Amino acid sequence: IDECRISCACSGGQECVNWPGSYQCQGLPELAKIGFEHSLYPVTEDSSSVEICLDVKNSQEPISGWITTNGGAAVTGADYLSIREVVNITDPQESTCYTIPILDDDEFEGNETFSVVLTLNANVSGVQESYDEATVIIVDDDDPTRIGFEYSLYSVAEDSGSVQICLDINSVTNFHGLITTNDGTAVTGADYLSILEIVNTSVSQESTCYTIQILDDDEIEGNETFNVVLTLNANVSSVPIIQDKATVIIVDNDDVDECELEIHNCDVNAECINIIGSYECACNEGYSGDGINCTSRWPIDTLNILVNVMHHI
């Protein structure tokens, strides 16, 4: 009697084997498995290559097919070299690997990806594919292209003669533009000399500087400001400007001595201290206050006693 056909109690994951007068349940043979070890492979742009491996298990029969690459954001020939490798596995083995060249450049592009695809031949049966596609992420190691003033604020004394304004540059291409100045509270021709400079950068250039003349005078004006502006040509669209305007503060070095001219409001029991553009008041020893109002630290009664004592000595 074929019990396997009539009364087999084997589970779904077992195979019924008929024996004379009985039967046995045996585990089904495992399917051969093949696929990429990982679904994601990150690699830095300057690594020169990435190794992609197939994980192969329970391969009792030859497995054949091919490995190919497909572009994503990464471009073959510019970011990596495409491959088409034959897969031909004839013996049981755990893995086989393939190397894909990665191309380095100096251009900031951000991270880019491409795909590696496993395709088995149509006549390959009984093989279970796990990861049949893997994504390679090329991690960009280049700094972003940029240009801008090194600082947003420059301070210069009125008698310094000039101020130097520098651009910070990182670019793999040449680009052009203009540096100009415009008045704030400072007036061109009276406080500084305006400039109109052509910006013409080269690939290897990291910075370029411009000198603006500062004009000194004897007039008390207080601190004054003017602006320096960077404008790129209209055809330069791919270069982000980090800092396109800088403000220059001209620190006035002219002063009136309010203390000497006695045009201050310090208390009679305070000292007037002249500073550039103003003055300060400080209470004399034995007095306290803000310098404009000073009060004796001695109580009135104590002072009267001291006066009387001194009078009788």
Describe this structure in words.
The chain is mainly beta and 313 residues long. It has three domains: 32-139, Immunoglobulin-like; 146-251, CalX-beta domain (Immunoglobulin-like, Sandwich); 258-308, Laminin (Ribbon). Helices cover 5% and strands 46% of the residues. The protein contains two helices and 23 strands. The chain has helices at 3-6, 300-312; strands at 14-19, 22-27, 32-36, 40-44, 49-57, 63-71, 84-89, 95-101, 112-120, 127-129, 133-139, 146-149, 153-157, 162-170, 176-183, 196-200, 207-213, 224-232, 245-251, 270-275, 278-283, 287-289, 294-296. The strands form seven sheets. Strands 4-11-9-6-7 form a five-stranded mixed sheet, with no helix packed on it. It has a five-stranded mixed sheet with strand order 13-19-18-15-16, with no helix packed on it. Strands 8-5-3-10 form a four-stranded mixed sheet, with no helix packed on it. The longest helix has 13 residues, at 300-312. It starts with a helix and ends with a helix. 17% of the residues are buried. The model has no long low-confidence stretch (mean pLDDT 83). It holds the Pfam family EGF_CA. InterPro entries: CaCA (IPR051171), CalX-like_sf (IPR038081), Calx_beta (IPR003644), EGF (IPR000742), EGF-like_Ca-bd_dom (IPR001881), EGF-type_Asp/Asn_hydroxyl_site (IPR000152), EGF_Ca-bd_CS (IPR018097), NELL2-like_EGF (IPR024731). GO terms for molecular function: calcium ion binding. Keywords: Calcium, Disulfide bond, EGF-like domain, Ion transport, Repeat, Signal, Transport. This is PA14 domain-containing.
